[in-house]
Design a protein that fits this description.
- The protein is an alpha/beta fold and about 475 residues long.
- The chain contains 17 helices and 6 strands.
- Strands 3-2-1-4-5-6 form a 6-stranded parallel β-sheet.
- The chain is globular.
- Mean pLDDT is about 85; it is low at about 280-295.
Length: about 475
């Protein structure tokens, strides 16, 4: 091995270390930003090392046209990534993550396609198992990730209905596609070389991604995003084996493993298995009609901003429960301003963060961090639930299904068994909501009929602005 090769391998090792340390730092909101930067530095170093390796003449088939393509890819891809990251609204972050998943999975699949076409063009050549296995897995997982992520992004953006879309025979088709992909893969893995069969695997994977995600409702999108993120990492790792690239293998394995762990945590937070989510068709989306929960009867009690402000201003302990409605209204700065006003009056303020609040894992944490909400005030569900009984006021801003007591008491409810925030145990409850429209699970929220609950009907941003003004006047 030449001196240059040794240096490049050391750069790759350093890049891998950056990935591992960066991922570790992302475990905490306080260090997540530095972890992201460290990972970006590692990736930049890996790309630079690869470019140097190519320029050294290691790859004899790299000509001027190839350099133009490489440069164009860096400029266009880097430019689009920089632009979207700088301009995307926090409410659209789940869609952006889904698109990034699609790009990653699609790129990995293209690597496998190119490699298989090249190898199949060698007359009389057979493809060894150590190459054919990762190649086939790469194209299957990458193609599923690509179309599945595109469908998920469409649902999140509202271009496709958020409710489960179950066409006649769709589940039979999904199962058939899986069987076709497995049989075709086995045909290739026993030593056969066939571009048409490889094309069948690619097509089956692309269609499977569509039929897998379409029946999944919007309420399960956080789990789906995590799962597809894990698929992306796994596809990238397979691409690393195809190219014998250690950086791709390490980076892909990290993403795949962390995504799988996060998927399991998200599923546990909803008290459901990943398999049940994939085949259950849970979550009826924005257009759903609220179904009766069968909960206790009662009447909705509407309150004004002045009454709500008095409760908040003279409370000792307030717990704020943010939800997707806060994200849609971009009201994170308003909730921080209200919290600061209350703290100036000696009120203890905490934020209750449900694992699946919003439409992607960590959505609420990122949103509130953007508004400079102190990290120690962000409390996860298990930590904050015991404190609701001691809270004078629980302020719910745009959260719905994750606060519904039906999950504990109504066995007929589609969310029965899902761990929720124990908002109903607070002494007083204030809910900022635009209307009585149900959440993504498509059912009425029993919390709104609780005698302790006062409904402040307003857009989250406007409602918080009213509360800020009212608290200042108290």
């Amino acid at each position: 091995m030449s001196t240059l090769d040794t240096v490049i391998q050391l750069i790759y090792l350093a890049a891998a270390a950056c990935f591992v340390l960066g991922l570790h730092q992302m475990n905490s909101p306080a260090t997540a930003r530095n972890g992201n930067r460290l990972s970006a530095v590692g990736m930049a170093a890996a790309i630079a090392g690869t470019v140097v390796l190519i320029a050294s003449g290691t790859y004899s088939d790299v000509n001027t046209s190839a350099w133009i393509i490489i440069a164009a890819g860096l400029v266009v891809g880097g430019g689009l990534g920089f632009y979207t990251a700088r301009t995307v609204q926090m409410t659209a972050m789940p869609q952006l993550v889904s698109i990034f998943n699609a790009v990653g999975g699609g790129a990995a699949a293209l690597i496998a396609i190119d490699d298989y076409i090249r190898l199949s063009g060698v007359v009389g050549a057979s493809i060894p198992l150590e190459v054919s296995i990762p190649t086939v897995l790469d194209v299957i997982i990458g193609s599923i990730t690509f179309t599945g992520s595109v469908i998920a992004a469409g649902k999140l953006q509202g271009l496709i209905g958020g409710q489960p879309i179950i066409l006649p025979g769709s589940r039979i088709l999904t199962a058939a596609l899986a069987v076709v992909a497995v049989v075709a893969a086995l045909f290739l893995l026993v030593g056969n070389v066939s571009l048409p069969v490889f094309g069948v695997i690619l097509l089956a994977g692309l269609l499977f991604g569509v039929t897998m995600v379409l029946p999944i409702g919007g309420a399960d999108m956080p789990v789906v995003i995590s799962l597809l993120n894990s698929f992306t990492g796994t596809a990238v790792a397979m691409a690393g084996f195809v190219l014998s690239d250690p950086v791709l293998i390490i980076a892909g394995a990290l993403v795949g493993a962390s995504g799988a762990i996060l998927t399991k945590l998200m599923a546990d937070a909803m008290n459901r298995s990943v398999l049940n989510i994939m085949i259950g068709g849970f979550g009826t989306g924005d257009a759903a009609v609220g179904a009766s929960t069968g909960g206790p009867g009662g009447a909705v009690r509407e309150i004004g901003a002045d009454d709500a402000a008095i409760q908040l201003a003279y409370a000792q302990h307030v717990i704020i429960v943010p939800g997707y409605g806060l994200a849609v209204a971009q009201a994170q700065h308003g909730v921080r301003e209200l919290a600061e006003l209350l703290e100036a009056r000696g009120v203890d303020v905490k934020y209750a963060i449900h694992p699946v609040a919003g439409r992607m894992p960590g959505h609420m944490n990122v949103l509130l961090a953007e508004a400079n909400v102190p990290y120690p005030q962000l409390k996860e569900m298990d930590e904050i639930n015991p404190e609701f009984e001691r809270a004078d006021v629980a302020l719910v801003v745009g959260a719905n299904d994750v606060t519904n007591p039906a999950a504990r008491s109504n066995t007929a409810s589609p969310i029965y068994g899902m761990p929720i925030l124990d908002v109903d145990k607070a002494h007083s409850i204030i809910v900022i909501k635009r209307s009585m429209r149900p959440g993504y699970a498509g059912i009425d929220n029993e919390l709104y009929l609780n005698p302790k609950t006062g409904m402040l009907f307003a857009d989250a941003k406007d409602g918080l602005a009213q509360l800020v003004a009212a608290v200042k006047a108290v």
